[in-house]
Design goal:
Length: about 450
């Protein structure tokens, strides 16, 4: 098999002073941070759809990148060429995992039985490569949003036939995830929402999404899937409103439907910002609820109102992300680069440089988050800020023993509360800067 990315050899760590565009400046896989090598803190994954399928097409213009990898598009030969390209790419960039949708792997046929046969064939081929390289599957999913049949949703479709088709895709995608040893299985509800409430039975649609998820859990467990299921929240795009709006909404939905033992969340940076939150906010909501499972590592553009899926370069944001991950004790999943090169970055070198950027950004995020925790000033400040709950009436409130009458009596005795203490936001922001830039 011919080399596809010829001229590019294995990407190495050369350190911050390096000016070599095809070298890591900060990601040093073996460097130990907080007692673990970086590679273990940062299980990076390649998104099959962006890296091997997306060729730069947008609403106004055609493809700019050649992702045929020497084969005729939409054939099984092309599907295999993508596997060859993907494994060569992951080995060269030093990535341990990949994530996939069913239809990223093979061209979809008119008959689902034929599509499934193609999926069996391609995953046999992938398994062989996985055995030879040690590369693993982070998570699998079913694409239930691109095909026109899903125009009104999958689990939330008004059509029971479409619901069944979605169920068939989930069943197959779960079988493939188990076959490839995937750590997780993702539901991203791209069409699970509505365009107008005038034609929508919201309650029924949400109950049906939960029914599809429950079927998936029951089937997945019956075929030996031991990993986590994930919801990947996103408020909008492609639909005007999507039911899995943000982390808080998705957690409420999972708990209301008894799915929270089998599911965690896969938080994507650009989805959080579309919901009007910071990336850290949705990570924090997930963490404090014990639901932080995996991350789609990308970055949005706050000047644009849509999902731009950029490779992350914002070290501040990556630091706050890694702060939440370290505080959470790591992830059950990993860091999937659900990101694409900008349309004018159309060469193979750009693909590698994009991953180097993303991996270096998260390596810096990890180093700086560890430094922030070791510095201790932020944790100490937060602990002190709530010190009034450590004794007296505060301790009784925190333990749940105090009554409303007791609190009121306390207030009456004090006549008026003292000022609650400065939030010292500016001081804390300067602590972050001094850790980031020291
Ligand atoms: C879309 C998105 C998806 C999911 C998987 O915004 O993030 O690619 O990650 O379906
Ligand atoms: Co995503």
């Amino acid at each position: 098999m011919a080399e596809i990315f010829s001229g590019i050899s294995k990407i190495k760590y050369e350190g911050p002073a390096s000016k070599n565009p095809l070298a890591f400046k900060f990601y040093d896989a073996d460097r130990v941070v907080f007692g673990k090598p970086m590679r273990e803190h940062l299980p990076f994954a390649m998104a099959w759809w962006h890296n091997l399928c997306n060729a730069g097409k947008d609403m106004f213009g055609d493809v700019t990148v050649d992702k045929s990898f020497g084969a005729t598009k939409d054939t099984m030969a092309h599907a295999k060429a993508k596997v060859d390209a993907g494994f060569e790419f992951m080995q060269k960039v030093g990535i341990q995992y990949f994530c996939f949708h069913d239809v990223d792997l093979v061209p979809e046929a008119d008959d689902i039985n034929e599509t499934n046969a193609r999926l069996d064939e391609i995953t046999d081929y992938m398994l062989e490569k996985m055995k030879n390289t040690g590369i693993q599957c982070l998570w699998g999913t079913a694409n239930m949003f691109s095909n026109p049949r899903f125009m009104n949703g999958a689990g939330s479709s008004n059509s029971a036939e479409v619901f069944c088709f979605a169920a068939a895709q989930v069943k197959k995608a779960l079988e493939l995830t188990v076959k490839l040893g995937g750590r997780g299985y993702v539901f991203w509800g791209g069409r699970e929402g509505y365009e107008t409430l005038l034609n929508t039975d919201m309650k029924f649609e949400q109950e049906n999404i939960a029914r599809l998820m429950r079927m998936a859990v029951n089937y997945g467990r019956s075929i030996g899937f031991k990993g986590d299921f994930y919801i990947e929240p996103k408020p909008k795009e492609p639909m005007k409103h999507q039911y899995d709006y943000d982390a808080a909404t998705a957690i409420g939905f999972l708990r209301a439907n008894g799915l929270d033992k089998d599911f965690k969340l896969n938080i994507e940076a650009n989805h959080a910002t579309l919901a009007g939150h910071s990336f850290q906010h949705d990570l924090r909501v997930s963490r404090v609820n014990g639901m932080l499972g995996s991350i789609d590592a990308n970055q949005g553009d706050l000047l644009l109102g849509w999902d731009t899926d950029e490779f992350p370069f914002d070290v501040y944001e990556a630091t706050m992300c890694m702060y939440e991950v370290l505080k959470s004790g790591g992830l059950t999943g990993g860091f999937n680069f659900d990101a694409k090169t900008r349309r004018p970055s159309y060469t193979y070198d750009d693909m590698f440089e994009a991953f180097i950027l993303g991996m270096d950004t998260f390596a810096l995020g990890l180093i700086k988050a560890a430094a922030l925790i070791e510095d201790g000033r932020i944790d100490e400040f937060v602990a002190d800020r709530y010190a009034s709950y450590k004794e007296g009436i505060g301790a009784r409130i925190a333990s749940g023993e105090a009554t409303l009458e007791e609190c009121a009596a306390n207030a009456a005795a004090a006549k008026a509360p003292a000022m609650p203490g400065s939030g010292r936001q500016e001081y804390l922001e300067s602590v972050v800067n001094s850790v980031l830039f020291s």
